[in-house]
């Protein structure tokens, strides 16, 4: 399947992270625990209590946010030669046994990026705290407009996997470091015309504290919509004939630039592995993998 690396950003998850590590499936080759200046000393706790040889503790001198901690892990995993990068939180909400399900579409060439979707089962939706449900509903709409991934749900879901070839193509240092890391990842992936696949999975809610605030949701929504307006203005200033001429050798596939039935010119990309471009890039949209 390839070398799987898991990144666990850690901030105030001392009571849960060891259980998360213990549940890692054997397919995982390396586990990066990123202590994001955690006041509970999660990194030291893992070093003192965990005997899993796959674990490597990284430390940020100052708090970088969930995105900053994740990107630190990405950079280390890429430097170590990982093929697939999985990110899950250290609070125990995400079931590590689902990692093979997330990685499978990447390994078989049907996706470039996969993410969890907690909205597939109505029972799971009913169990979701109200603040999370409202926040996700608002962000889902804004994210669809911003990224063009019209069929992708649950944009703030932090259980994700990305192909190393695609990760290397992303401007990692420009991606949001804060709570909206996952949403910004989708926006950046849309620029690359990456194939995104939703994987249904249930969330587990315990005694962890959510940092989501409705005011934050409206703030990021407004900023993202303003950015969309700037992009449209930029495209309106470009002569469309130049774009078509420059892409005359490209093929047509569904892209995240509009509704699922809208087609635009797209380069065949992400051919850095052994598979041909036409195997690596396919239909953009929602695919359920079990």
Computed structural class: alpha/beta
Overall average pLDDT: 76
Write down the CATH class: Alpha Beta
Count of domain modules: 1
Distance between the termini: 16 Å
Spatially, the strands of the biggest sheet line up as 3-2-1-4-6-5-7
CATH topology: Spore Coat Polysaccharide Biosynthesis Protein SpsA, Chain A
The fraction of residues assigned to DSSP E strands is 15-25%
Provide a count of the helices.
Answer: 11
Q: Would you identify the CATH architecture?
A: Alpha-Beta Complex
> What is the string of SSEs from the N terminus onward?
EHEHEHEHEHHEHHEHHEEH
The total count of strands amounts to 9
Low-confidence stretches: 225-290
Q: Choose one word for the global shape.
A: globular
Using only CA atoms, what is the Rg? 19 Å
CATH H-level superfamily: Spore Coat Polysaccharide Biosynthesis Protein SpsA, Chain A
Report the helical percentage: 25-40%
Largest sheet: 7 strands, mixed
What's the gist of this structure?
The chain has helices at about 15-20, 40-50, 65-80, 100-105, 120-125, 130-145, 165-170, 180-190, 215-235, 240-245, 275-280; strands spanning about 5-10, 30-35, 55-60, 85, 115, 160-165, 195-200, 250-255, 265.
Structure description:
- The protein has 290 residues and is α/β, with parallel strands linked by helices.
- The chain has a single domain, classed as Alpha-Beta Complex (Spore Coat Polysaccharide Biosynthesis Protein SpsA, Chain A), CATH 3.90.550.
- It has helices spanning 17-22, 42-49, 65-79, 99-107, 122-127, 130-147, 164-169, 181-191, 214-236, 240-246, 277-280; strands at 4-10, 28-36, 55-60, 84-87, 113-117, 160-163, 196-200, 251-254, 263-266.
- The strands form two sheets. Strands 3-2-1-4-6-5-7 form a seven-stranded mixed β-sheet, with helices on both faces.
- A hairpin with an 8-residue loop joins strand 8 and strand 9.
- Helix 6 runs parallel beside helix 9.
């Amino acid at each position: 399947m390839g070398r799987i690396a898991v990144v666990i950003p850690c901030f105030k998850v001392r009571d849960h992270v060891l259980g998360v590590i213990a549940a890692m499936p054997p397919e995982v080759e390396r586990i990066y625990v990123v202590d994001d200046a955690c006041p509970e000393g999660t990194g030291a706790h893992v070093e003192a209590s965990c005997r899993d040889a796959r674990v490597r503790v990284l430390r940020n001198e100052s708090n970088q946010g969930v995105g900053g901690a994740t990107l630190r892990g990405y950079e280390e995993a890429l430097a170590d030669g990982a093929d697939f990068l999985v990110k899950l939180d250290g609070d125990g909400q995400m079931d590590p046994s689902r990692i093979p399900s997330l990685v499978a579409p990447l390994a078989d060439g049907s996706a470039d990026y996969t993410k969890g979707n907690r909205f597939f089962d109505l029972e799971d939706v009913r169990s979701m705290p109200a603040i999370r449900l409202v926040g996700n509903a608002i962000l889902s709409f804004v994210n669809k407009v911003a990224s063009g991934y019209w069929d992708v749900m649950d944009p703030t879901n932090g259980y994700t996997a990305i192909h190393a070839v695609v990760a290397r193509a992303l401007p990692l240092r420009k991606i949001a470091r804060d709570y909206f890391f996952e949403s910004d990842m989708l926006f950046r992936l849309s620029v690359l015309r990456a194939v995104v696949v939703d994987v249904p999975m249930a969330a587990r809610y315990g005694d962890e504290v959510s940092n989501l605030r409705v005011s934050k949701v409206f703030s990021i929504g407004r900023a993202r919509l303003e950015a969309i307006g700037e992009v449209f203005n930029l495209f309106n200033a470009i002569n469309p004939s130049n774009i078509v001429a420059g892409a005359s050798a490209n093929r047509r596939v569904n892209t995240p630039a509009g509704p699922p039935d809208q087609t635009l010119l797209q380069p065949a990309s992400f051919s850095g592995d052994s598979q041909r471009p036409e195997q690596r890039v396919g239909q953009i949209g929602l695919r359920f993998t079990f």
